[in-house]
Structure formats: structure tokens, C-alpha cells
């Protein structure tokens, strides 16, 4: 049935139709209330529920928006603080060198290279001071040194092209940003590591270079001029014939000299050499190279230059040569062959034997271990560690002293019974200690072998000469002592001093002091003031005879570094100026008897004839790589110029970083 509604007007103000539009508050309130009353109970419940729900949502979202706002405010405060506290430092890169890749050989494992951790909180600098992003101080100091050189030697030049404090790298050809990374890790493992130049150094006053250091710079420049004019890009300068000799055909002198130029502050020379490395250094060559020599000179030189300059070009080249040398380890015993064809990827022993030299197979470890740390690829370290572990277990040693040869098939020592600290065994002892230091002093087998060997030296090889009672290291051949000492043995005082500095027996230092005196006498007792290659000591006083005797076949001098190297360590650790004075005498005698006026220095045939030392017409690459570098460092009073608590020198004087503790 249809329902009929009747509308009744009760008053004028309420009569919409009669009174027109009424929008008064009272009317609206009453109208709403009426509408509400007209709703069913269900409708009213739904509306009430919706209101309640919206109210709850409102309260909750208000609370969370407050939190977000608060944290936003805090973040921007943090950012401000960060900018104020470490200007110029990218906080995502604390640049802490990692734990050594292989911390403990005893465990036989290879601890992972952990990627660098994020700092927490972000603005806190972490790690020991020597392992952090490099502060501008070092750049400033290097620049100062460089400026000093220019001030003395050349008219003042403007600093054009030099980098400002904002970059990590100063002028040395390589520009890297504070957060520069090496390339991504190889397929094998982990993050690659940063160069050690990316580190902070304590804020210290720059140490100006002195007159003796300037003399070394002058000598270096003279040598370099000869190399540049007559042998550029070749292995060695022949300064008399104004030509060159080739050994591997890889610009050996240039590569060996790179980090010396960096340390001496020779900007232009470094940049020129860098260009050659970038454009002309090619390892894809059908050429046989000696594994040891190319490791210590080329791989070592490239790695240290990478660390000093931060320029990834050198790391790329180091990886290339490192990979090309790896076929040497493919032998039945895993004791590497002496020679590798770096173009063909084949390796072989010398033609006449399947033996390798003990010093050679045990003195490539610092370099390959560092290459693993930098690339994150453990294969390099694994190969060289295997050699050390194997040699550790071998019989045929005599109180820690090793024979000179080892067979690549059987893995056994050969030619037993001859023991020397000279040629073919020397750097075995040096690298025992240096690997132990490089790895953070944890690899106990290395230390054990080193300590035992030094006891072996004391027991079997030490003697005193007459008349001056010089302590020297002779040789032992099938039970017979020989009073013969190679100049090469003069690395030993420096190594002993380094060990003592790192906490080993104090009597190692005493022995080092005695031996460096002997090495100095090997120069001082000779007519030219330069040491021969080999000396024989007199054991009994004879009228008119000095301590040192020289055989005609041994009286050449190859511009070798070992004595100057040890003088450097001795001065660093004792501060005794006599070591600097001895080095200064030696430099002057090199200048007197081996300097070639048209550029370069030459090895000589006869150190006993000052009027005709018989120049040999060859400048060995280690004269620039080692001898002059150690001279420069010896004359320096700046212990931070290659700090020995941060760097370890390889046997070719290329400094590599000591790994940070875990
Ligand atoms: C260098 O190549 C190295 O120092 C090596 O360990 C021994 N021989 C020369 C320098 O004399």
C-alpha cells in the first residue's frame, strides 16, 4: 500500500519553503540531530565504528611521524659533525689494511681477506694510526722535500699541476681520490686491498733533506741521465760504450728505479718513467726470464711503486707479470723452476740440471704474498707458502743452515754439505725474518727456522780475523771452514738489527754491530775504498798483511748495495752517526772510481788499482733500485721516510707494507 506523507510548517524560521534558505547554526544542529535520529541503529553503529577507527589511526600515525622526524633531525646533526671532524675523508672507506691473508702457517689455512668494515658510528676513525686514510700531511712533506730539491738545484718553478691536500696523491704522476679502490676481486675471493699510501701519518714537522741526500740525488740524476740517453727502455746501461745490454728485455733498470725516484722526490723523472710503463711495458713476449730476478726486481718494484704512488697502473702491471710467472710452480715437487717463458706460459730448469737455487725459490715470498693480499686471489700466496712449508720439513740442514740447491723433481736438497750466507743461500735467511715480520709475527715456523739458522751461523761460520779481530761469516764445505766471505753476506748485519728491533735476542744486535764493522773494513782496507766481490780473511797475524785478502778473480765491484743497506738499518736503530759517515765515504768512492762523465756509473774490475780500476761498462739495475736508495735513506733523519715499523724491504730494496694485525 502506498504511504502518504504530509508536511506541516511549525514556524517561519523553520519553513524552508516559506521563509527561504535558513543556514543558521542552531537550525543546522537541530537538522543534523534529526537526521542522526532518522538513521537505523545499524547505520549509526557503522558510522560510530568508522569514527573510532579513524581516531585510532590518527593517534598511531602521529606517533610514528614524530619518530621519523626526530631521526631525520639527528641524521643531519651527524652529517654536520662528520664534515667538521674529518674534512675530506670519505667515511665509507676506513681504509684499514686487513688482517694478513694467511695469518698462521702452522694451521695450514688461508684466512679470508675480509672486506673493509663500515665504521660505526660513521664518523669515528678506526684502526692504528698507520693504517688509515692518508692525511694531507705526507703530501705536504713530500711536496716540501721536492720543493727543497728544486730550490737548491734549479730556479724556482711554480707548482703547476701539483695536487692539493684534497687528493690523496701529491704530484707524483698518479692522481687518486681518497676512496679509490683497486679493481674488483678476482673470481676466486674477496675484496682487493688499497695501497698503503692511503694512510694517515702523525702530524709531524717535515724533515728537510740535507746536503748528503742532495749528493745522492745528484748521483741518481747522473746515473739516470746516462740510462735515458743511451739505454732508455732497455735492461741495463753500458755507460762507456753508450749503449745497453738486454737480459729480459723488460726495462729492468727503469722498473727497479721507480720507487727510488718517488722516495728521492724526482717528479719529472718519475712521470716520464711512468709513461714508459703505461705505453711500452709489455709482458706478452716470447722471452725466458729468471723467476727470482724478475720477482724481486719487476714484481717487487711494481708493487712498491703502487703502494707509494697509489697509481693502479702499477698494480695492473704487477698482476700481469705475477700471473705470467705462475707456470714456474708447475713442477713435480712444487719447488719452482728457475726460468719461465712469460709469453708462452712455459717454465723449465736451467739446461744442465733440474735443480733450483735455494735462495731463489725461498726469496720470492714477500712479493707473491703481497700480490695475493692486493688482488684477493690466494693462488700466489699458496704457491710460495707451499715452498716454505716444504723447505721447513726438509732434512739436509746443518743447525738451520741450508745447502745451496734443491731439486725440482724430488723436492730434496742436493749438493749437501756446503753452507754459506753468500751467493745462492743469502736471501733464504733474510726472507725467513722478513716474512715473519710482514705477516704480523705470527708464522712461528718462519721464526723458528730463522732463529735456528742464526744459531747455526754462530756455531759453524763465525770467526775472527787477524790482526784487527774482525768478526766475519765464513763458509763450511764438508766440514772444512773457509775464511771466504762474499760481499753479498753484508746484508746480514741489517737483517740481524731488524730482528733485534722486532724483539729478537739483543745479542743479534751485538753481532750486527760487529759484522757491519767488518763490512765497512772490506771497503776501508782496499786501495779504492770500494769492496771487492769476495774477500778472504786472515786468521793469523802476518807481518805486512791486513785482515782482508783479495784474489785476482774476486777484485771486481758491481756497485752492490748490501753494506749500504746494513748501514741504513744500523743508523735507523742506533742513531750512531758513524754509520752515516761510513756510507758517505763509500758514496764518494763510487763517485771517484765508477762515475762515467757522460752519464751513468759503471761496475769495475779492479778495486785495488786506483789509477786504473778497469771499468766494466755496465751499470746494474740494483745500483738505482737499491744502492742509491739505501744511501738516501741512510743520510735521512726522518724515520717516517719508509718507516721500518710499517714497511718491509724486499731483497731488491722495494718497500712493501707490513700487514696490519687482525
Ligand atoms: C740484488 O739483486 C738483490 O739484493 C739480491 O738479493 C742479491 N743480489 C743483488 C744485489 O747485490
TrEMBL record:
It is found in: Endoplasmic reticulum membrane. Its EC number is 3.2.1.-. Residues 188-205 have a biased composition (Basic and acidic residues). The chain crosses the membrane at residues 45-65. It is a single-pass type II membrane protein. Pathway: Protein modification; protein glycosylation. GO terms for cellular component: endoplasmic reticulum membrane. Disulfide bonds join 490-519. It catalyses: N(4)-(alpha-D-Man-(1->2)-alpha-D-Man-(1->2)-alpha-D-Man-(1->3)-[alpha-D-Man-(1->2)-alpha-D-Man-(1->3)-[alpha-D-Man-(1->2)-alpha-D-Man-(1->6)]-alpha-D-Man-(1->6)]-beta-D-Man-(1->4)-beta-D-GlcNAc-(1->4)-beta-D-GlcNAc)-L-asparaginyl-[protein] (N-glucan mannose isomer 9A1,2,3B1,2,3) + 4 H2O = N(4)-(alpha-D-Man-(1->3)-[alpha-D-Man-(1->3)-[alpha-D-Man-(1->6)]-alpha-D-Man-(1->6)]-beta-D-Man-(1->4)-beta-D-GlcNAc-(1->4)-beta-D-GlcNAc)-L-asparaginyl-[protein] (N-glucan mannose isomer 5A1,2) + 4 beta-D-mannose; N(4)-(alpha-D-Man-(1->2)-alpha-D-Man-(1->2)-alpha-D-Man-(1->3)-[alpha-D-Man-(1->3)-[alpha-D-Man-(1->2)-alpha-D-Man-(1->6)]-alpha-D-Man-(1->6)]-beta-D-Man-(1->4)-beta-D-GlcNAc-(1->4)-beta-D-GlcNAc)-L-asparaginyl-[protein] (N-glucan mannose isomer 8A1,2,3B1,3) + 3 H2O = N(4)-(alpha-D-Man-(1->3)-[alpha-D-Man-(1->3)-[alpha-D-Man-(1->6)]-alpha-D-Man-(1->6)]-beta-D-Man-(1->4)-beta-D-GlcNAc-(1->4)-beta-D-GlcNAc)-L-asparaginyl-[protein] (N-glucan mannose isomer 5A1,2) + 3 beta-D-mannose. One of its GO terms (biological process) is ERAD pathway. Residues 91-146, 171-206 are annotated as: Disordered. The active site is at residues 293, 426, 533, 562. Involved in glycoprotein quality control targeting of misfolded glycoproteins for degradation. It primarily trims a single alpha-1,2-linked mannose residue from Man(9)GlcNAc(2) to produce Man(8)GlcNAc(2), but at high enzyme concentrations, as found in the ER quality control compartment (ERQC), it further trims the carbohydrates to Man(5-6)GlcNAc(2). Belongs to the glycosyl hydrolase 47 family. This is alpha-1,2-Mannosidase. It comes from Pachyramphus minor. The gene is Man1b1.
